[in-house]
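Title: Prediction job returns without error message
Component: structure pipeline
Severity: low
Priority: P3
Assignee: unassigned

Description:
Job completed but the reporter wants confirmation the result is attached to the right record. Sequence as submitted:
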Amino acid sequence: QVQLVESGGGLVQPGGSLRLSCAASGFTFSSSAMSWARQAPGKGLEWVSGIYSDGSTDYADSMKGRFTISRDNAKNTVYLQMNSLKPEDTAVYYCAIKGRSWFEFAYWGQGTQVTVSS
């Protein structure tokens, strides 16, 4: 069965940094494009970033220059390095397997809470 387990969330101050991890299993990770998405309370799911199997990346405009997605195929893990965090980044962050586009998700994990507050 497909398993995506996010970790690394927590409470950080504005301007701080956080590194999220997603441990994947139950599918061929190395050939799968992976995504990070987030959902703030009362809002819909927002795509954050994606990484293809060859390592090429895409980012939502609001995340460019602040967030970096990466993957370690040997560890079946995808990461999201988040810098210069803002209160509006507060959300549950989900790891997902890419669907037909970056804005669609074939599978997703349980999420990890990121709270940016002073």
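Comment from assignee: result matches the submitted record. The chain is about 0% helix and 50% strand.
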